[in-house]
Amino acid sequence: MSVRSLEFGEFTAAETFELVREYPHAVEHVWDAITRTEQMQVWWVHFSKLELRQGGAYQIGAQGNALSGTITEFDPPHRICFGGLTRFELFETKKGCRLVLTMMRWPNGWSPMQLAGFHAQLDQLELHLDHVPKDEIERRVDTWRHIVSAYELLVQRTVNPGRQVYYRIHFKPNSAELSPASQTRLDDVIQILRQSPALKLEIDGHCDDPCSFDESMALARRRIATVAEHLKSNGIAPERMMKIAGANGLHRLTASDTEEGRAINRRVDLRPIY
Predict the structure, then answer these.
(1) Residue 177: inside a domain, yes or no?
(2) Which residue, 169, 262, 263, 176, is CA-closest to 217?
(3) How far apart are CA 53 and CA 46, in angstroms?
(4) Of residues 79, 102, 75, the one with CA closest to residue 90
(5) Among 88, 199, 205, 237, which residue's beta carbon has the most beta carbons within 10 A?
């Protein structure tokens, strides 16, 4: 794991979160890495469209599963902001460059998984700047599952004082059936939603069974659908639920080389959006 993995981000206010990294590279070098699509897909995400100008359009991912927006700030080679939510700022230092990544509160609230994801991606950026190949970067950066619990605690202490961040339910192998324990867990969530009628809920499904990517996605969706139907049958309106399908190999909470580990990762996460 990279030493920089220990450089955690922090909430500078309830609505803003900041990650800082120091790189021994020129500002122009880092700017190219955060604005050139062929480089961004190595360490961050795939931009299927990117117009590098103020007000320019961008699109992450492919049609049907894409996130679109406009560039709200653009001052090369020092600042770019995507959708008014994710801002990269570069500052020259004696040893190279300081990168400040500021995130504004997303419409779906503060997700510890997303925060941990950005943390890990900046670790990947460090290796990319050092010309490490993409497959080697993916092999060497195993940051996410080591730090997501720390970001969950940070969100709980800073944003959700006295409130639980995640409610997790687990499943048997290759099954989307709710156990009695899971139904009891869901009753806690239902009570919270009934007490706060305006509160929405993110439902994130995961799969860690020995199956293919497509099978994994399908099983994760079935698990989400089972949870959503249970909530609906107990009076929770579907429009209060945000559904995201996970995938095999992504967002594991622990190593999956044992049945105990796979059982922990076979789950649906429910996160009230405070």
Answers:
(1) yes
(2) 176
(3) 18
(4) 79
(5) 205
76 and 205 together in one domain: no
Q: What pLDDT score does 6 carry?
A: 59
Let me know if residue 130 belongs to a domain. Answer: yes
* Distance from C-alpha of 23 to C-alpha of 95, rounded to nearest angstrom: 8
Query: What is the number of alpha carbons within 13 Å of residue 218 lying toward its C-beta?
Result: 6
Q: What's the token pair of residue 55?
A: 């007000």
pTM for the structure as a whole: 0.88
To the nearest 10 degrees (0 to 180), the angle between helices 213-233 and 180-195 is: 60
Q: Is 232 a domain residue? A: yes
CA–CA separation, 55 vs 47, rounded Å?
Answer: 16
Alpha helices in the chain (DSSP H): 27-35, 37-43, 112-129, 134-140, 144-158, 180-195, 213-233, 259-265
Locate 6 and state its tokens: 């220990």
Alpha-carbon gap, residue 82 to 14, rounded angstroms:
20
Please give the DSSP secondary-structure letter assigned to residue 244.
E
Mean pLDDT of successive 10-residue stretches along the chain, which has 274 residues: 64 94 97 98 94 97 78 98 97 97 93 92 95 88 80 91 92 94 96 96 86 85 95 97 76 84 92 93
DSSP 88: E
DSSP code per residue over 133-180? -HHHHHHH---HHHHHHHHHHHHHHHTSTTS-S-EEEE--TT--PPPH
Q: Is residue 3 domain-resident?
A: no
CATH number of the domain that residue 230 is part of? 3.30.1330.60
What does each C-alpha distance from 267 to 10, 202, 205, 224 come to in angstroms? 28, 14, 6, 9
Distance of CA 198 to the CA centre of its chain: 24
